[in-house]
């Protein structure tokens, strides 16, 4: 279970360093204005609920999810289960926030509690309980372990996260946890939403904002998990880094007097005469994490300064 090679993560070190620099900037600005915190928390919780549920097949749109949560509206043509998934995920986020503190150590009871909230009134017989039978995952390149081994594997994973024997940074450690949890697949249903909650519990205890894996990255997300099953964490870690950076940018951009950078669609950046690259190339740099960029929907945003920095560093290497 613990055989993996992290050498392919070396090229991601500049991205990791950039994120820790942003986190340091955010930490130095604490405490943040209460009004800004409330707004960002509300926005992130909504996006978190919408995207995590959508990845699992929930058909409520972002606007419909907001209407269900904030106005209590029942959306015509949508199933009762889909409405429960929205309410339940929001309750799970609320519970997660009660756990977040720097001294927090991961506990199995908290994972079970998160899962219980996710499946409440949907599959009450399974909510908050480890599976006692086999499961198969459509489209995955592995078969989860026998149910008799689930409890022991989960305990091993929790110990690995809490002890961090390899001295991994918080984001890489969370990435490995994410994959191994999915591999164990401790529940009959609700594993995806539970692990995306738990990964943020691990990040938030270290002062990172919650990271949201976007619905538009669903295919990439599943492909990266399959790559991790083969021992390569590069794609999954990059996806995690991009999700963390997006949330960090949201917080930093909300700081009073922020001059961190004006993010624009890449199409706008490359239209300027002093940018020598085309949209396809700059988009590739963004997807690979080689420039400071983040994703909104299907569009990548970056800054002119980020592109200029890449050009300068490339000339220096030559």
UniProtKB/TrEMBL annotation:
Ranges where the Fido domain occurs: 106-242
GO molecular function, one term: ATP binding
Site (Important for autoinhibition of adenylyltransferase activity) location in chain: 56
Top-level taxon in the UniProt lineage: Bacteria
PROSITE patterns membership: FIDO
Gene3D superfamilies: Fido-like domain (1.10.3290.10)
Keywords, comma-separated and alphabetical: ATP-binding, Nucleotide-binding
Entry-linked Pfam families: Fic (PF02661)
Nucleotide-binding recorded as keyword: yes
Active site: 185
Residues reported to bind ATP: 189-196, 221-222, 229
The name this protein goes by in its record: Fic family protein
Species for this entry: Pedobacter chinensis
Lineage start: Bacteria, Pseudomonadati, Bacteroidota, Sphingobacteriia, Sphingobacteriales
